Amino acid sequence: MIRRRRSSIVILSILLTFTLSLLTWIEWEEEPLYELPDFLHPFQANQSSPPSLRSSATLYDSNFSFSLNLSEYSMQYPALQSYRCRAAIDLFGYCWTNDPLILLAVKSHPASFTRRDVLRQTWAREKKIMEYRVKPVFLMANSGKRHQMERVVKEAFSNGDIILWDFLESHHNLSLKERCFLEWIYHRCPEAKYIFKGDDDEFVNPYAIVSYIQHSLPPHPLEIHGQLQIHPPPERSGKYAVPFSLYPHGHYPPFVSGGGFLLPGELIPSLYLAASTIPVFPLDDVFFGFLALSANITFHHEPRFCSFGLKANRLCQYVDVLVVHGLTPKKMLEIWKYLPNTASCPPSERTPTEDTKRKTLVK
Ligand SMILES: *[C@@H]1O[C@H](CO)[C@@H](O)[C@H](O)[C@H]1NC(C)=O
Ligand SMILES: *[C@@H]1O[C@H](CO)[C@@H](O)[C@H](O)[C@H]1NC(C)=O
Ligand SMILES: *[C@@H]1O[C@H](CO)[C@@H](O)[C@H](O)[C@H]1NC(C)=O
Ligand SMILES: *[C@@H]1O[C@H](CO)[C@@H](O)[C@H](O)[C@H]1NC(C)=O
Ligand SMILES: *[C@@H]1O[C@H](CO)[C@@H](O)[C@H](O)[C@H]1NC(C)=O
């Protein structure tokens, strides 16, 4: 009797488990969220980020004031404020070199295997240009998809150029990528003399970056260089919308397009401090504008950061630009192949004319 009851309990629990797993399976359209496995956390060393120093802030520039109310940010974007950066795949000693180092930091989504593959065949590979050592690093987080993340782990082990944090990839979590990257570079890569920050769907010209550092940057040695946006109004609908309750102001502070900018390593400590103290804004390029404002760092506008794409799109234009947004892998390979044998455009055509169609905030 007892035996029978026990077996019916067993059958019942099997059925229940089956139903539950079926339900979970139906609930997730694709597959359950993928937790990074423990073996990806070999260094559980207490990295002991200090307790959060974050508080509300009111920042001023010459024309406007901007209040960031931490209670609102914590209510609407709790993870952005409280997440403690934990690298599941970290890079130690990555920046040790005898040459002055230029780090090319590329935000990439785990799913973009083809893009990273093409970048490693073109501009995102370690090389020496003039006296500089140029090194790429891919900044990634967890996509929550097992098949992708297992491939990413293999890719990271064979290329050694990926940092993978354990937060979930999402549009708003790109601000976490910004914040964790600042933390990483502060602790692991203080050697970086210059940092270029870009995306994986771009053409980046490392030769033009070195030339820019040698000739155009010196008059503005402690600024952030890029495609400047001066006080644009916040969008209230669409992908880049920010609710009025979070940000009631009519303007953003100045910031550079997240599609590509350049800064000297000396600025990292003050930016990292700002990133640990002010509320984290849910759009990464605007967040960087707030960081700069808080750290009392100004921007320098440079049109050769073509974060919105090129209009005429002639090969000779790619010789002088630092970055061009929105290229297909095929086009990237083609340009890279012909670049060494291409001369600059004639002076009259040299200043790039941007494609102004996409004059919204481009990430
Ligand atoms: C990590 O460091 C913090 C602060 O230093 C300390 O309070 C905590 O106990 C440490 N945790 C472990 C697991 O050692
Ligand atoms: C600030 O306001 C003044 C006068 O309204 C204007 O001339 C100037 O361009 C503004 N500066 C910025 C950075 O917007
Ligand atoms: C910040 O936001 C909270 C929650 O909405 C509100 O109660 C508080 O008054 C705000 N503080 C300021 C200084 O506006
Ligand atoms: C951002 O990452 C955190 C930490 O992994 C996660 O809890 C949160 O859901 C993510 N946000 C979004 C919008 O995916
Ligand atoms: C900000 O920097 C400027 C120089 O760039 C300096 O004159 C000013 O005193 C600084 N302000 C603060 C609050 O540190």
How do the strands and helices of this protein lay out in sequence?
Layout: H1 2-27, E1 57-60, E2 65-68, H2 70-76, H3 78-82, E3 87-89, E4 101-107, H4 113-121, E5 127-129, E6 132-142, H5 146-159, E7 162-168, H6 174-188, E8 192-199, E9 202-204, H7 206-215, E10 224-229, E11 255-264, H8 268-277, H9 284-294, E12 299-301, E13 305-306, E14 323-325, H10 329-338
Parallel strand pairs: 4-6, 4-8, 6-7, 10-12, 13-14
Antiparallel strand pairs: 1-2, 3-7, 5-6, 8-11, 9-14, 10-11
Bound molecules: 2-acetamido-2-deoxy-beta-D-glucopyranose (NAG) (5 copies).
One 2-acetamido-2-deoxy-beta-D-glucopyranose (NAG) binds at residues 46, 48.
Here the CATH topology of the domain at 63-303 equals Spore Coat Polysaccharide Biosynthesis Protein SpsA, Chain A
Mean pLDDT: 87
Number of helices: 10
Q: Please tell me what the overall shape is.
A: globular
> What would you report as the Rg, rounded to the nearest angstrom?
23 Å
**Major sheet summary line:** 9 strands, mixed
Architecture per CATH nomenclature, i.e. the level-2 architecture of the domain at 63-303 = Alpha-Beta Complex
Pathway: Protein modification; protein glycosylation
Family: Belongs to the glycosyltransferase 31 family.
Keywords: Glycoprotein, Glycosyltransferase, Golgi apparatus, Lipid metabolism, Membrane, Signal, Signal-anchor, Transferase, Transmembrane, Transmembrane helix
GO molecular function: protein N-acetylglucosaminyltransferase activity
